[in-house]
Write a structure and sequence with these properties.
Blueprint: H1 9-18, H2 21-29, E1 59-64, E2 73-81, E3 84-93, H3 97-111, E4 115-119, H4 124-137, E5 144-148
Parallel strand pairs: 1-4, 4-5
Antiparallel strand pairs: 1-2, 2-3
Amino acid sequence: MLDERILNEEQYENKRNTLSPAIFETNYNNRVIDEVNALYDVTRFKTYQYSELPNELDLKSRVGTADEGEDELVKIVYARIGEYCYLIDFYSSFDKMEITEKECAKMDKVLNVKKITTESNNGGKGFARNVENLTRQLGNTYSTYIWKPTTKN
């Protein structure tokens, strides 16, 4: 158990009784427990057929860029319908920005993505500008590109 000055016995027992065993053991007893399906509650994770979705979708995209090194670019295209987000497409790559910028621009045009939000840390702002220029060259005039710094991960 932790030092009484940090967490008294009553608080400790309260946490033990209210937290999931995996979280409690990891955080308060330094015992890591491997838990399958811990990221998502698999009973609430739904699948769908694309044909089941409405014809007109307001597609959005989130992009986590990779500047150099061993980082990976990840682009997720999704549609929010009611309380659910539907994953429409996904792109990930360890390639350099010169390659991924072109792939993302093509994806935005082909899928008619309306709003693209790019993480602006480590070159992301320049990446977003380049993708916007490339997609305009492809004839895409409907996508809006914005960038935001990621400060909470």
